[in-house]
Specification:
4 strands
């Protein structure tokens, strides 16, 4: 993976030991059997470094078509694709980068995350519940501050709490 050298967080050649020790961790596990839900602005499912690790199902929390499979980006924002790559880009395929868990499966949960969307918290809560229903082991979200006002919601907080306590068959 030619851009691995730039992933100093995984292996820091300039400052050895100041990294996640991903290479050492990969001798124990590469994330096989782990489902990671990425609640973001959509993921390019056919991306050459991600396609093999995309779960069969994805979810559009704005329009709510259960188990939809978008043809390309769920929306037109690349942030979710980048996040999914950091998590589970395929290892040793001689393309771009490698993810922290290069054998994990990504469950894409898309939302445009528009700050003017009055239903944003409800839609994101639905995304958490969809992730729980589809056996997500980990739920990732990296929402920016421009959504802060719409995210203060007891409904969204309850969905996160349910994921923490009821997810993975009650293991949290």
């Amino acid at each position: 993976d030619p851009d691995f050298k730039y992933l100093w967080g995984l292996k820091n050649a300039a400052h050895p030991g100041v990294d996640m020790k991903a290479c050492e961790a990969w001798t124990l596990t590469r994330g096989a059997g782990v489902n990671v839900a990425v609640i973001d602005q959509g993921i390019q499912r056919e991306h050459r470094d991600l396609a093999a690790n995309m779960h069969l199902f994805s979810f559009d929390s704005e329009t709510d078509p259960r188990d939809s499979i978008p043809s390309n980006y769920m929306y037109t924002y690349p942030h979710g694709t980048q996040v999914a790559g950091v998590i589970a880009a395929v290892k040793d395929n001689h393309l771009q980068v490698v993810g922290i868990a290069p054998e994990a499966k990504i469950l894409g949960i898309g939302n445009r995350l528009r700050s003017d969307n009055p239903k944003l918290a409800e839609e994101l809560a639905n995304g958490f519940y969809w992730a729980i229903e589809h056996q997500a082991d980990i739920i990732n979200n990296s929402w920016g501050e421009n959504q802060q006002g719409n995210l203060h919601s007891s409904l969204l907080e309850e969905a996160m709490e349910d994921a923490l306590t009821k997810g993975r068959g009650g293991k949290g």
